[in-house]
Amino acid sequence: MSDYIRKRLFQGFICLHILHHAVEESVYGSAMIEELSRHGYKLSPGTLYPILHSLEKEGFLESFQENVSGKIRKYYRATQKGLDELQNVKKYLKELVNEIVVDEKNE
Ligand SMILES: [Zn+2]
């Protein structure tokens, strides 16, 4: 994949992916990096954390801290606004997938 496409699309894919998981459970940085790498996205903390912070700043995520064996870990969870936004985006996503992925198979 070219850098051009990567830059333009990945930020959005990653936001959606984070939202998707944060709707289902509380997520934290390093676990999210692992999850994304499972899907083929190689992300450094320096890339992921600003995305988490901006999703929180925009009100799509909320965070809380927990003490995990002596270390403070910051967890994120989707807000109602985040959930609504994800539902909205899914409509566009389905439409797009139907056109460029599903249709291709039927041609
Ligand atoms: Zn995932």
**CATH architecture label:** Orthogonal Bundle
What is the H level of CATH, i.e. the homologous superfamily?
Winged helix-like DNA-binding domain superfamily/Winged helix DNA-binding domain
Looking at the structure, the CATH topology is: Arc Repressor Mutant, subunit A
Task: Say what oligomer this is.
Answer: single chain
The strand line-up of the biggest sheet is 1-3-2
The CATH class is Mainly Alpha
Question: Would you identify the regions where 5 or more consecutive residues have pLDDT less than 50?
Answer: none
Number of domains: 1
Helix content: 55-70%
- Listing every helix as H and every strand as E from the N terminus to the C terminus, the arrangement reads HEHHEEH
- Round the mean pLDDT to the nearest integer and report it: 93
Helix-strand blueprint:
Elements: H1 3-24, E1 27-28, H2 29-38, H3 45-57, E2 61-68, E3 71-78, H4 80-106
Antiparallel strand pairs: 1-3, 2-3
Helix pairs in contact: 1-4, 2-3
This protein binds zinc ion.
